[in-house]
Amino acid sequence: MKMRRGGRPSLLNLALLVTCWVVGQSRATEMEIELKDNAVQCFYEQIEKGQRCFLEYQVTRGGNFDVDVALFGPGDRVIYQKQRKQYDSVDFTTTESGEHYFCFSNEFSSFTHKVVYFDFATGSEPPITDEIGKTHKAFTQFEVSVMKIHEALTLVRDYQTHHRLRESKGRDTAEYLNERVQYWSLGESILLVVVGLCQVFVLRRFFANKRSQI
Amino acid sequence: MHCVKVLLAFVVCLGTTRGLYFHISETEVKCFIEEVPAETMIVGKYKTQLFEEGRQMWLPSSPGIGMHVEVKNPFGKVMLSRHYSAEGRFTFTSHDSGEHTICIGTNTTRWFGGNKLRVHLDIQIGEQAVNYPEVAAREKLGELQLRIRQLLDQIEQITKEQVYQRQREERFRLVSDSTNARVLWWSLGQTIILILMGIWQMRHLKSFFEAKKLV
C-alpha cells in the first residue's frame, strides 16, 4: 500500500494520516504490461466519491518509449487524456462513485511492442491491524516517530522504483547499441571486401578482349 | 435506472471486489510483468466473473470457471503452473532477480470466441504481501512491536532492491565496456582490412597489366 505524499511529513500530514486510518479503503497495484502493436489495454476499478487517487505510468521498452493514455470516470467522462507520452503522473480526487478506468493504447505503432509500467493507488493507507483502526487515541511520541519512519521508508521504496525504471531504459539502449555495433561492423567489413573484389574484377573485364583499342 | 444498476452492482461487488479488474475473452491469456529482486514473496489474488449474455449482466460469482496461472522466471523457465477455481490466490517467492511474467487465462479447450470474462486482480510484492493481523496473532505481538516488525520488513525489502540495483548497474557497466571494446577493435580491424584490400588491389592490377603487356 503506498502513500502519495512527497517531501517530509508535516504535522498536518500526520493528522490527516491518523484520520485517514479510521476511514478509507485503499488499493494499490503496480505492474508492467506488454502492449503489442495496435493493442489497447484497459483497467477498471470501482471507486467511491471523494477518494484521492493516483496514477503513474512510464514506458520502459519499445520504439520511442511513448504511449497514448486516457483516464475516464463514470459515464465515460474524460479525466485525463494524453497522446504519445513517455511518463507522467495523475493525481485526482473522484467526484462521483462508480467505475473508473484507464487505458493504454499502442494503436499508432504498427510494429513495435511497448512495455508500460503503471502504478495505480486509491485512498490512503489502511491501518496495520483492524484494532488500531477502531480505537481512537492519542499517539505517543514514540508511535509518532515510528509512523514517520514508516512513511519515509515508503518514500524510499518509491524512489527506488523510479530509479529502477530510469536505469532500465538506459540499460536497454546500451544493450541495443552493443548489439548493433557488432552486426553493423561485421556487415561493413564484409561489404568492404566484396566491393574491393568487385572493383578489381570489373576493371579486369574492361581490359579483356579490348586490347587493340587501348 | 442506469445509476441504480451501477450502484447496485457496486454494493454487491463491495464485499467481493479486489482492486483493479480487466476484461478478457475465454480464449485470451493476459500477462503481467513484475520486476522484483531475489527472495521476494509475491502474492496474487484474483476473482473471475462471467458475463451472461442473456441477462446482460455480470454474475456475482461463477464457480464453474477454471483458471490457469503460469509464472515464468527472468530466464523464461516456468516457476508455477497451476489450475485454480474461479476465485483463488497464488504465492511464489522469486529465486532470481529480474522480470517475472505472470500469465492468467482460462483452461478452456476452445480455440477462439467464447464468453467475456471480468478478472479482478491484486498483486502484492514483498512487505506489502505480509498479512500483519495474522502475524500479530500468530506471534502474539503488541501494537508497537507489530509496527517495528513492519518497519523491519520494509527495510529488508529496500536492502534486497539495493542489491538488485548493484547487480543491474554491474550489468550496465559490462555492456558499456563491451561496446567500447567492440568499437575499438572493429575500427582497427576495418582500417587494416581497408589497407590490405588497397595493397592487394594495386598489386593485382599491376601484375594484370604487366601480363597484358600494357605497362
What does this 3D model show about the protein?
- The complex is a heterodimer of chains A (214) and B (215).
- Chain A is of the alpha+beta class and 214 residues long.
- Chain A has a single domain, classed as Sandwich (Jelly Rolls).
- In chain A, 39% of the residues lie in helices and 31% in strands.
- Chain A has three helices and eight strands.
- In chain A, the strands form two sheets. A four-stranded antiparallel β-sheet of chain A has the order 1-8-3-6, with helices on one face. Chain A has a four-stranded antiparallel β-sheet with strand order 2-7-4-5, with no helix packed on it.
- Chain B has a domain at 18-129: GOLD domain (Jelly Rolls, Sandwich), CATH 2.60.120.
- Chain B is 42% helix and 31% strand.
- Chain B contains three helices and nine strands.
- In chain B, the strands form two sheets. In chain B, strands 1, 3, 4, 7 and 9 form a five-stranded antiparallel β-sheet that branches.
- Chain B starts with a helix and ends with a helix.
- At the A-B interface, strand 1, strand 2, helix 2 and helix 3 of A face helix 1, strand 1, strand 2, strand 9 and helix 2 of B.
- Strand 1 (27-35) of chain A pairs antiparallel with strand 2 (29-36) of chain B.
* CATH fold name of chain A: Jelly Rolls
Subunit arrangement of the protein: heterodimer
Strand content of chain B: 25-35%
Shape of chain A: elongated
**How many β-strands of chain B, per DSSP?**
9
Strand content of chain A: 25-35%
Q: Decide which structural class fits the backbone of chain B.
A: alpha+beta
What composes the largest sheet of chain B? 5 strands, antiparallel
SSE string of chain B, helices as H and strands as E:
HEEEEEEEEEHH
Summing up helix and strand content along with how strands pair, one would put the structural category of chain A as: alpha+beta
Which CATH top level class of chain A fits?
A: Mainly Beta
CATH architecture of the domain at 18-129 in chain B: Sandwich
The low-pLDDT segments of chain A are 1-9, 11-24
Organism (chain A): Geodia barretti (Barrett's horny sponge)
Family (chain A): Belongs to the EMP24/GP25L family.
Subcellular location (chain A): Endomembrane system; Membrane
Main location (chain A): membrane
